[in-house]
Specification:
This protein is an alpha+beta fold and about 500 residues long. It contains seven helices and 29 strands.
Length: about 500
């Protein structure tokens, strides 16, 4: 009895092996018949990936293994296409990616402007020195820019024929005793820029000087020096300019998108890199009426007292201007927002290791927070770290789902366009792959019943058919007209 069972089992296994070999040979024949696999057919195989690389989510395989890029072991991934672009990852992957989340909150958002600025002279304390007549710089006592001067310090001697003539006229008026003429001549000397000290010397010595001494009218430094000894100068030429450093301006550059945030009187903090830890507190004194055409920034002016002269002209500074607050704002951490150039989105944590992208419309940015105008509600949870990898994975899933939908639609359209018919064979021409048939009406083509010749696809074995047999067939359109694609005997 046992021998009989063994014989039966052996026979069954042999039959299955032969069938498997036959199936394998048939599969190989089918593969060789197809020129290459299409992208859509390839996508079908990967609609439900099971294993992925934690560091390279584009690596997706159906079986366990290692990543061909980094060599890491692939981890299980439960992808559920019915949820669209939702991605589900295991706690191990979450840990490897360093996923962190934050809750969407609704609160007051302060309009804080973080920008840069530079220190400049206080133009209210700058004096420009020009001659009021033509002349020559006889001797220059200030030799370089940046030199510090005091009020009343001698700056230079000038020779001018016009100033000499004006002194002679004044001296003649003094000698004549005519008070009205003397007063008029004195006023003329003052109008020509001759100092009071020089006029008093003429009154005392009754002598005309060929050279007029020019003195500093304020304390400060030489901000600009345009002349040297012996130079000929005219009234339009600036001889030099003096500026005080006891108070300075700081000009902050505000971006165009934040131009409506800044107002006169707002408080501001200033920090300089060369003095870490020190903060200057001031306020916006003036807002310039136009934007810089090249940098597209609005200039705001701040004023600071500078007794110790720590703020030096042309120094760069980090400036923070505190604008007003915007109430009841839906906001998220700035690091959680993904900008692609065409849209803005976040990765939403929906629980149980599931994540999905969500399109949003972002508003103002202030510090580390971003306003969300639409797309999120208070209490939802967004990913703040690791979200770029999850977003990449979600984009792949969404693309595969769209491909699958297009494949299904294509298959549905193909199914709808099938041209089916039936009829009775009159003649079978196997050598020519032709049949003569009396077919019934074909509604898909609007054909009535008739007798005609059809070409038959080489895949149809005509040796199985004989005249007068009833058959059912499917037609497909080709360059030679309609060809019988498949055919079977009618039941």
């Amino acid at each position: 009895m046992k021998q009989q069972y063994k014989a039966v089992i052996t026979t069954t296994l042999l039959s299955l092996s032969l069938a498997a070999c036959g199936d394998k040979q048939e599969a190989q024949t089918m593969v060789s018949a197809e020129s290459q696999e299409t992208a859509v057919e390839h996508a079908r195989k990967h609609l439900d990936p099971k294993y992925t690389c934690p560091m390279h989510p584009q690596i997706i395989q159906d079986e366990p293994g290692s990543c061909p890029i980094c060599g890491m072991d692939l981890v299980p991934m439960d992808v559920q296409p019915e949820e669209g672009a939702t991605v589900k990852i295991s706690p191990v992957v979450e840990h490897n990616l360093g996923v962190r989340t934050a809750e969407v909150i609704k609160d007051k958002l302060w309009r804080r402007i973080d920008t840069v600025g530079y220190v400049d002279f206080d133009e209210n304390h700058i004096s420009h020195i020009h001659l009021r007549t033509r002349g020559w710089i006889e001797k220059l006592y200030v030799k370089s820019e940046g030199e510090r001067v005091r009020k009343g310090q001698l700056l230079f001697d000038v020779y001018s024929p016009e100033l000499v003539n004006a002194q002679e006229e004044y001296l003649q008026a003094l000698n004549s005793g005519n008070k009205r003429l003397t007063a008029a001549s004195r006023e003329r000397l003052i109008a020509l820029g001759i100092p009071e000290l020089h006029i008093n010397d003429i009154n005392k010595n009754r002598k005309v000087s060929q050279y007029v001494k020019i003195y500093a009218k304020q304390d400060g430094i030489v901000a600009n020096l345009s002349v040297r000894d012996g130079m000929y100068v005219t009234p339009p030429v600036e001889v030099m300019s003096l500026a005080e450093l006891s108070s300075v301006w700081l000009l902050a550059e505000v971006f165009e998108s934040q131009a409506d945030w800044v107002e006169v009187g707002q408080s501001a903090d200033v920090r300089l890199s060369y003095l870490p830890g020190r903060v200057w507190e001031g306020e916006v004194e003036y807002i310039y009426p136009s934007l810089n055409q090249k940098t597209r920034t609005l200039k705001a002016r701040l004023h600071f007292e500078n007794e110790d002269e720590a703020l030096k002209p042309n120094m760069f500074a980090d400036v923070t201007i505190y604008g007003g607050a915007k109430n009841n704002v839906i906001m998220i951490p700035r690091e959680s927002l993904i900008r692609t150039g065409r849209e803005e989105r976040v990765i939403l944590a929906v629980g149980e290791g599931k994540y999905q992208p969500r399109k949003v419309v972002a508003g103002i940015e202030s510090g580390d927070w971003v306003e969300i105008i639409s797309g999120l509600t208070e209490g939802e949870v967004v990913v703040t770290s690791g979200h770029f990898l999850i977003d990449s994975e979600a984009s792949i899933k969404a693309s595969l789902n769209r491909m699958r939908s297009s494949v299904a639609e294509k298959d549905d359209r193909a199914e709808d366009k099938k041209i089916m018919g039936s009829g009775t064979l009159k003649e079978v021409l196997s050598d020519e792959n032709k049949v003569n048939m009396a077919h019934d009406p074909i509604p898909a083509l609007g054909w009535p019943d008739m007798i005609m010749y059809f070409k038959v696809s080489p895949h149809v074995d005509l040796s199985r058919y004989k005249p007068n047999e009833k058959v059912e067939f499917e037609l497909e359109e080709s360059e030679d007209g309609y060809v019988i694609k498949t055919m079977k005997k009618a039941e």
